[in-house]
Amino acid sequence: MVELQVVCTLGPRSDTPSAWLELAQAGATAFRIPFAKETPDAQFTKAESIRQIPELANVGLFADLPGQAPRTGNSEPIE
Predict the structure, then answer these.
(1) Longest distance between any two alpha carbons in the chain, whole Å
(2) What is the pLDDT of residues 35-52, one digit of tens each?
(3) How many CB atoms lie within 10 A of CB 77?
(4) Alpha helix ranges (H) inside the chain
(5) Sign (positive/negative) of CA torsion 23, 45, 65, 54?
(6) Long-range contacts for 11-20 (Cβ within 8 Å, ≥24 apart)?
(7) Cα angle at 15 between 59 and 56, to 5 degrees?
């Protein structure tokens, strides 16, 4: 049998301890923390805050690090 994993992205509407608990109670097994929108320090603080809540001890955390941004606009042709 395949074990189902439910990953929830944390954002502005889910940025409070009560929201994290609600997501976990609804079945979230992991939280995705996007690093593209806030500073790394803010995101690390969020992860530490999540780990301080005993009810969330079994919820996984993973960081979504921003990759290279595509370049747009005028560029010199490659020869």
Answers:
(1) 59
(2) 888 888 999 999 999 999
(3) 4
(4) 17-25, 40-51
(5) negative
(6) 11/37, 15/46, 17/49, 17/53, 20/50, 20/53, 20/56, 20/59
(7) 20
Coil, helix or strand at residue 68: coil
Task: For residue 35, give both structure tokens.
Answer: 């690093």
**Model pLDDT for residues 62-73, shown as the tens digit of each residue:** 999 887 766 666
Could you give the strand order of the β-sheet that contains 60-64, starting from the edge strand earlier in sequence?
7-9, 30-34, 60-64
Quick one: pLDDT at residue 51?
95
d(CA 75, CA 54) in angstroms, rounded, equals: 52
